Every structure is written in C-alpha cells, then in structure tokens.
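Lab notebook: predicted structure, single chain.

Context: the supervisor wants predicted structures on file for every construct in the current expression panel, including those that have not yet been purified. This is the next one on the list. No modifications to the sequence; it matches the entry in the shared construct table.
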Amino acid sequence: MTDVQPLVTPLWIMAGVGIFETLLLIAIGIGGYRMYMRLMTLANDLETRHVAPVREKVDLILGDVRSVTSRVAYQTDRVDETAARVRAGVHDKVTQAAGVIRGVRAVIAALLHSQSHA
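Prediction complete. Output recorded below exactly as produced.
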C-alpha cells in the first residue's frame, strides 16, 4: 500500500480554504444586505423629507394651472361668440350703408343724366 500521509496536509489546507471562502461569502452577503437596507432607509427618508413636499407643491401648482387654463378656455369661447356677434352686426350695418350709398349715387347719376339731356 501507498503512504497517504503526504496528501493529508494539502487536503486540510484545501478544506480550511473552502471553509474560509464560505464564511467570506456569507459575510459579503450579510454586508450587502445591510448596505441595501441602509440605502433603502436613506431613500425613504430622502423621499419623505424632500420629494414629498415638492410633489405636494407641484400638485398645487398643477391644480392652479388647470384652473387658469379652464378659465382662459371659457373666456376665449365667450370672446369668440362676442366677436361673431359684432362681426354680424357690423356686416349688417355696412351692408345697409353700402345700399344707401349706392342709392344716393344712383339718384345723383340720374339727376346728372337728366340735366345733361335738358
């Protein structure tokens, strides 16, 4: 039989290194989890102290903007209706005035034409 004694020491070293690697991986996992929890706590705190108040202000501003926009749209509609009424009224008056001027021109033309034949 062969002597296995020279192989025992390297096997113990490899077992120790394996155990050390396992413990190191567990420690890295625990450290990573703790870092993750700290970052999540920091992110939640940041959101609570800074983002939430800003979000509330932005929501209020957006509400005001919506309100102003709806008022402007309503007023624009009213101005359009008023402009249409004014345009129709002015058109009627201009048409009447143009008719009167044509009539006066026709009377003057008739008078001038009748005087030239006399």
